[in-house]
Amino acid sequence: MLWVYIYTPIAAAVIILVIAYLSLAGHKQSAKAPERIDDPTGFISARGVNLYDGEGRLFRFRGINFGNWLLQEFWMAVSSCEGFDTGLYTQKRGMSALRANPNIAPDAADALESIYIDNYIREDDFARIAALGFNSVRVVFSWLTLMTPDEKYRAEPFKYLDFAVEMCRKYGLYAILDLHGAPGSQNMDIHSGDDSQFDLYGNPHNAELTCKIWRDVATRYRDDKTVAAYDLLNEPRRKAHRFGGKLNFDFYDRLYKAVREVDGNHLILIECFSFPTNGGKIKRYDWHNVCLEYHIYNLMPVKQITCLRFYNALHNLAGNKAPVYIGEWNAFKHPRDWYATLKYFDKLGWSYSSWTYKTNAYYYKTRRRLKNWGVYELDMPAVNLYTATEEEIKATYSAVGTENAKATFIYDVYENTLGKERVAE
Predict the structure, then answer these.
(1) Terminal CA-to-CA distance of the chain, rounded, Å?
(2) In whole angstroms, what is the distance from residue 190 CA to residue 210 CA?
(3) Spatial separation of the C-alpha atoms in residues 399 and 420, rounded to whole Å
(4) b/e burial code for range 359-387 (CB count within 10 A of at least 16 → b)
């Protein structure tokens, strides 16, 4: 079948040409956008393909993620679960291992977890972020941040979200609240806190519990202008280990309506995972004041700028007329790619927050090809929550402050870009 051998390279060439054309012809998000609008709401809001701040000025998020704080991920965690269950750390498994540890009193587990959280991100971290020139923080949390595994609200469920919002207010930053892990897991990925199940969308109980969480979060922060946006669900999948799709957008519609029952003010972020074309078209839904979110990690054998143009081409191909926020991205070990990415986002007018503010490099430094995940990096062995003594865990968790981390070249990248913008302003 000769036509197959002819057709395949021709089709590939056509696809490449179409993508190239779309990337060049695509509109810039802020092109010809008015610098001010006459009817600001007091909150960050979406107008067409642009964002405006509470005073009506054209706005972009230039931010950083708080990954690994309220939700550790095994590849950058200071905790492990060796000898327990699968041995792979997730938030859910870590909690269970800590409570199964014969060296730990049952009532000490929560106190140990608090030591980690209280030390990993402190007030001085918000000061550092503001000083570098960022204007926002994406605050990663899970349902287990607010609730116990038996689905009861903790004694102070909003303690850490309140702290993050208050520190953002003090240092002139915006907070984006990101539900990274939902009940039952929206993706069965370790970064949801639970890799043991894919049981959100078809489970009425978990689905309604997620809606309840967002109604409660929105009720608490509906009048707070420091909170810029609600990131309803991180990296949803239509099936385990598959990209997202209409199933996820339909569930976003439920979450959107749950929020809008109590809060008509805040910007809502809708994630297309993993590409702009993975999802339903937003015009199918009666959504207002929403922003599309993509995550860009160049794991393809192409140059960074080619990857960025590919995303832009797919965005234009999808035809969704909304602002764009790159909620996660990383250019890994190549400084030139960091500068090129920031320049390209500026060119398109896309908002962003890179992944992530601080990591523990001990695991991926030796086992993973990709490096330089954080602006700051710790380098400490993970403590085994299943076998360590209380004092060993306490010592590790007490040492995770940023004063014990090293700034990477990413710090210099932001100082040389965002710092110059602050001087110019």
Answers:
(1) 64
(2) 18
(3) 33
(4) bbbbbbeeeeeeebbbbbbbeeebbbbbb
Task: Extract the tokens encoding 57.
Answer: 């000025």
Which pairing describes strands 376-378 and 406-407: parallel, antiparallel, or unpaired? antiparallel
**Residue 94 structure tokens:** 């870590």
Task: Give the SS3 label for residue 103.
Answer: coil
User: Could you count the other beta carbons within 10 Å of the beta carbon of residue 241?
Assistant: 9
Helix (H) or strand (E) holding 138: strand 136-142
For residues 46 and 59, what is the distance between their CA atoms, to the nearest angstrom?
A: 10
Residues 90-141 have pLDDT tens digits of 999 999 999 999 999 988 999 999 999 999 999 999 999 999 999 999 999 9
The sign one gets for the Cα dihedral 153, 287, 57, 327 is: positive
**% of the chain exceeding 90 in pLDDT:** 86
pTM above 0.85, yes or no: yes
Please name which of 77, 69, 115, 111 lies closest in space to residue 94, comparing C-alpha atoms.
77
Phi, psi of 132 (to 5 degrees): -70, -20
* Distance between CA atoms of residues 126 and 209, nearest Å: 31
Pair 353, 64: CB distance under 8 Å: yes
Strand-by-strand arrangement of the 406-407 sheet = 358-360, 376-378, 406-407
Beta strands 50-52; 45-47: pairing state:
antiparallel
